[in-house]
Amino acid sequence: MTLRIFAVAGLVFALAGPAGAADYPDQPIKLIVPTAPGGINDVIARLIQPGLAAALKQPIVVENKPGANNIIGTDFVAKSRPDGYTLVVVPASHSVNPAVQATMPFDTEKDLTPVILIGKNPMLFLINPAVHANTMKEFVAAAKAQPGGFSYSTPGVASQAHLIIAQLTGMEGVNAVQIPYRGGAPAMLAAISGEAQFTLMSSSLAAPQVEAGKLRALAIGGLQRDPRLPNVPTLAEAGFPGMEAVTWAGIFAPAGTPPAIIDRLNGEIDRIIHEPDVAANLKKHGFIIDGGRPEVLGRLVREEIARWTAVARKSHIMVKR
Fold this sequence. Notes:
Layout (H helix, E strand, L loop, with lengths): L1 H22 L5 E5 L6 H17 L3 E5 L6 H8 L7 E6 L1 H8 L11 E16 L8 H9 L5 E5 L5 H13 L3 E5 L3 H10 L4 E5 H9 L4 E5 L25 E9 L4 H15 L2 H9 L3 E2 L4 H22 L6
Parallel strand pairs: 1-2, 1-3, 5-6, 5-7
Antiparallel strand pairs: 3-9, 4-7, 4-8, 4-9, 4-10
Helix pairs in contact: 2-9, 4-11, 6-11
């Protein structure tokens, strides 16, 4: 009799799993943004929101949970039920944090499962117009002529910009001083005002300042030039072959979310980001759309964690919490 009860219970649970995935969704879905309102990840979430709500026939609730370099909001999702009702739109710092944080409240690769890579946004290497350099090689020569005389602004210690600049300056033997700020906007203003001589910033944020002549762009971190700035060479063209500097945005769910739900979300979001209106808006913000299967995002995160870990160790960059 006991064996029969366990057998029936097992059958019920086996049937309940697929039925739950088949009925998905039957309630509102939370789309967590681990940054403050108004940032590019917040913009992406709200661009996707109406199309996803229409496709899934459920409200998509965008909720901002900023803090701790995006860790707070992402941790909330990592610890949520793996039922497809809590998702997170993460920026590129998602793969930087495990490389530079002494401790993390979740395992970046094990506690979250990728849904889709939205796209990439190339970064611009920028200098204050008062700096006498028109190319990356001229800038390197000027900086090496004044060891410790040049400073650069970043959105914060151990940020992606900090790591990329550390990698670039390390490759060229440039001794420069970091000035960390709280976010990209104040870091960019520091370069505009001359508080810092150079910086590295997403093209979505910096392109208008370059077009206005407030900053000079010496290189772009993507594999192709930006149509908005056709005269700005790529890092490879500027003498740094194989070097990329891009931010990105991707969507994750808690680990253990049923594959059928991940597939459904992946397909719907991939379709939405390629719709003409959404695609045009992403392009306006400097994003090159990726999409594709979840494995594309998973592979990107693995590769970047390895890259940033190597850079952080070589440059002795670490955040103790």
